[in-house]
Amino acid sequence: MLKNSRQRLTAALLILLVLLFAAGCGSNSEPDALSYVLLIGIDHGAQNLLRVSYLIAVPKVIAGGGQEGAGGGGGEGQRSANVITIEAPSIYASMNMVNSFVGRRISLMHAKGIIFSEAMAKDGSMGVIVPGLTQFRETRGTAFIAVARQKPEEILNKMTPFLETNPAKYIELLAGNQSFTGYIPGEKLQDFYNDLKIGGINPVALLFAVSNEKLPPHNGQSSYRSEGDYVAGEMVKKGGVSLEAMGAAVFRGGKMVGTLNGDETSIYSMFRGQYGRRIYTIKDPLKPGKLVIMDVSQTDKPRIKVKLTEEGPIIEARLSLEGNVLGVNSLIDYSLPRYRPVLEQAFEELIEQQARELVEKTQHEYRSDIFGFGNKALRLVLTQRDWEQLNWAALYEEAQVSVDVEYKIRRTGTQLRLMPIARSNSESIQ
């Protein structure tokens, strides 16, 4: 009995000691002794292997509600974030080198995104670096991954939000607008790495560019162009943040092989089941000179079937969408039973056409299965050797792909009936 009591006492003391030593900060660093990185930019170096840029938060300014953005000046000269660029043989070496003059230790625990140069994406350096990034315990797998059409340090210096005093919040909202714009992919760092190592899919990354910030002269004429028919750097805009996040970079074998515009990225997201919602402006099917504006969302995950035949793979995809009519320039009442199916069919045909064109583009121009059709085909083989012998990359180029879109209009606006513009008697006589 006494022996059992001693054993229990010893066990209790051991547990107490373990709890005492386990408590506290395991990193041995106080919060005010760390430099919190918000964004990382990676490019080829001039005098070393890499040129790494860090957007580092200034907590005191952010907490005080300062009005300056990242890299900006003015007022009292206080900035909520600073950009530091350094050349080093590796990313982790660059962190240690920055520690030598910043004072606080660099931390990636709050890094929202990683931006690579287009040159690194195209020559395969980006695909080599990403796996190593995912191994570091401070790297967040939920950080977005992007390709910059200019130098990454230029992108970081343009992070000057005018609606947010906190650049971290701005970056988070910018990368998260995929759920309601549809113009950018929703892939994160961990998703990109997973797609790199899986043979049945190729990754994509968000596309960034610095805005031109110039408006062309107005000649009195205008023409229709889809709001998603742009890639980053091509938008006609002036004002706000001098940045554009539009479209996606397409990869094959770890190398960037092309880009998708905003419309194509929306279709891509539909195939991946990542599409949230988006505003579509299309030509009126009954009056092509007029426009119909709709808010379109995805109602269900895409249904994709893959069959392996002697003639090659057969892929069948079905996309389910629904939407609300926001505006009709022609004043045609599409809430009426005789008109509603016309608009639904017109939009179905539009999305089916865009989907077919995008699939053909990835098959013959990019030769990259970014939709994950190969993951469905992977289930049709028994072993890894069978999968390697199948050679899906070559089969995808010859696959027969059919796309069926189902679109239903749920609401047609808050007005019960659209009425034409009233005209005066003199106008009606003329």
The gyration radius over C-alpha positions equals 27 Å
For the largest beta-sheet, the strand count, sense and barrel status come to: 9 strands, mixed
**How many alpha or pi helices?**
15
Derived from helix and strand composition plus strand pairing, the structural class reads: alpha/beta
Q: How far from one another are the termini?
A: 113 Å
Number of folding domains?
Answer: 2
Task: State the order of secondary-structure elements, H for helix, E for strand.
Answer: HEEHEHEEHHEHHHHEEEHEEEEHHHHEH
Our estimate of the beta-strand percent is 25-35%
GO biological process, one term: spore germination
Pfam families: Spore_GerAC, Spore_GerAC_N
Protein name: Spore germination protein B3
GO cellular component, one term: membrane
Report on this structure.
This protein has 430 residues and is an alpha/beta fold. 34% of the residues lie in helices and 27% in strands. Strands 1, 2, 3, 4, 5, 6, 7, 8 and 9 form a nine-stranded mixed β-sheet that branches. Strands 10, 11, 12, 13 and 14 form a five-stranded mixed β-sheet that branches. A hairpin with a 2-residue loop joins strand 8 (243-252) and strand 9. Helix 5 (125-135) packs across helix 9. The longest helix has 26 residues, at 340-365. It starts with a helix and ends with a helix. It is found in: Membrane. Keywords: Germination, Lipoprotein, Membrane, Palmitate, Signal. Its main location: membrane.
